[in-house]
Amino acid sequence: MSNIREVARLAEVSVATVSRALQQPELVSVKTRNKVLAAVKQAGYQPNLLAVKFRSGKSHNLVVLVPTVANVFFARVISGMQEAAQQRRYSLLLGNTMADDNAEIAYARLVQTSQADGLIQLRAFDPFATLDMTTERLPMVNACEVLDKAPCPVVTLDNRAAAMAMTEHLLSLGHRNIAMIKGPARSPLTRDRVAGYRDALDAAGVAFDETLLCPGNFTLQSGHQATAQLLQRKQRPTAIFCENDEMAIGALQCLKQHGLKVPEDISVAGFDDISFAAFSDPPLTTIAQPAEEFGRTAVNLLIDVLEQKLTLLPKVILPFELVLRGSTGPVKMSEPATDTPAVHLT
Amino acid sequence: MSNIREVARLAEVSVATVSRALQQPELVSVKTRNKVLAAVKQAGYQPNLLAVKFRSGKSHNLVVLVPTVANVFFARVISGMQEAAQQRRYSLLLGNTMADDNAEIAYARLVQTSQADGLIQLRAFDPFATLDMTTERLPMVNACEVLDKAPCPVVTLDNRAAAMAMTEHLLSLGHRNIAMIKGPARSPLTRDRVAGYRDALDAAGVAFDETLLCPGNFTLQSGHQATAQLLQRKQRPTAIFCENDEMAIGALQCLKQHGLKVPEDISVAGFDDISFAAFSDPPLTTIAQPAEEFGRTAVNLLIDVLEQKLTLLPKVILPFELVLRGSTGPVKMSEPATDTPAVHLT
DNA sequence: AAATAAAATGATATCGGTTACATTTTAGTT
DNA sequence: AACTAAAATGTAACCGATATCATTTTATTT
């Protein structure tokens, strides 16, 4: 590959002039500039940006830690990141970490070693916290699932309010026996959504029943499995609120296999509004999150930090939307029959 | 950030010794090595890998051009790439190109400018072809949808045979009126799968009907739309073979909305075997592709090329598998009734 | 103890750009 | 024509590591 010296030789000027002709053309006479451009063309010269980055100390790369790229919601987030990064001329280094702390720490080292300028974390874990830092904190933005006391800008959604809104919706349909298929127990996301669920129950004067909370891991399979468990209860719930759409779709299948009709026999709600949610049978009632916007905002915030356009620590809260589709409906009047005398219904 | 000179100063040795103590410890005396390691620790030294990369001329980055990261199949491919790249200590630079030639060419420049060592292309387009190359070809691997005459290693699947296998399956169930929802017309993938479909029809002596081919774009929506069109035909098909699972799931929804039962009234088949395929209603008969393996293989091939472990141009063909689920079934005997006299059925 | 080989360490060029500073050329003024 | 300011260009240091080659130190042999 030809370098700047080669071009300088061809154009019969100094390397500094070549550099200037390309970077600040106004500093170079038209005649020289043309000579240089001709030489660039002749040599097929492409500046070695690795050298530029090294010299400038800026890699113009951002590391993104994604728990699972194969998750549809995160795929949308990444899509938004891509868009914003490209616009601002940064590249994304993708880290598929399977939510493994050590894998994330390994990726965080890319920032420490100047291979990336900053990091976007989509999980409530601070990979820099454990790196023995003699210097100040490295640039980071935390999005989607955020740390309670994040030492960095944050992009999130009011998960508690969203879960409350969904639960209120189910309550308004007459449901009183509402199960929830959660995510991993330690996750703040799970905690907040359970809290919102509880808020709604409390406000409606419905007793909270811990045993209605079923653990899942955000996959179709886990939604199916958890639902199967719920159906073994002597009094089965009249509605299942899943913490994401994948689990809700898993739940739908399980219910179908048990011969239950949704929403006639049981209502199902999801969270995220992935594309498949509108195409399930029945289409899924869910909470829509602006996934791409999460990505765009996170990238823009991080670059703002890097370019010093930001001093304080912003906390961006994106809006959610309750999307009503066919998977939720009024509770069946005969429902409590299993363990309630029919006389109550009169 | 502290650098190697700082460490050398602290350890009271030369920078060369520091470098050696870290890279080839066996060349340095134990005493000196310990002094250096202590200094490294004291200074919180992390080698600037941007400098290392610059010096070595190798970025250890790979560009991946993905038509749509939000596509479930590609998400799995990326997942596999990640895994392989991490193992071999490379990073992935992700380019979400929306199948736009110019966007891909822009990303290809990352390789030209030494920011990445090679490129993986998941589409039948050669972004290097248009770059005026004075030098030899830049390292590239083409996977999933491949160029007919790819000037590089290739990872693919026998799409023609796979489509033929699925069509044969449908034929064996008695279907003679089989529609196909295709991908974009220009794609070799589409061409090969249509060819395989036709192979099977020909072998069975069933006439090929061009009007049964319906264009789609691999999204849920397009599957839905195309199906709606097919249902307007005076003689509606008894089976629909979709070129990917998303479109098949879109088709399922459309059929449901029209009050048609799958597979009793009409059979539906997909391609890819994404996770949702097993959870649709009914579960989707499809062609399983080893998506993660595509990613892993592509990355390993590219790195082999980069590390000169490869001279010839390999063409890896991964296996597919026909996965039979509930969305395909025998053709209804009364089906041809719409435009065939009942007398034929006796 | 001297000679020699082997091991350890140091000085420095190098990668390919950018940029501060020095120098030369051109344009403008009297 | 002489002088000055401005514009254009050149020289060389620099970014942080690696690696070659030279030099010094240590170990081994006689």
UniProtKB/TrEMBL annotation, chains A, B:
InterPro entries: HTH_LacI (IPR000843), LacI/GalR-like_sensor (IPR046335), Lambda_DNA-bd_dom_sf (IPR010982), Peripla_BP_I (IPR028082). Pfam families: LacI (PF00356), Peripla_BP_3 (PF13377). Keywords: DNA-binding, Repressor, Transcription, Transcription regulation. Residues 2-56 form the HTH lacI-type domain. One of its GO terms (molecular function) is DNA binding. The keyword Protein biosynthesis does not apply. The keyword 4Fe-4S does not apply. This is DNA-binding transcriptional regulator CytR. It comes from Rheinheimera aquimaris. The lineage of its organism: Bacteria, Pseudomonadati, Pseudomonadota, Gammaproteobacteria, Chromatiales.
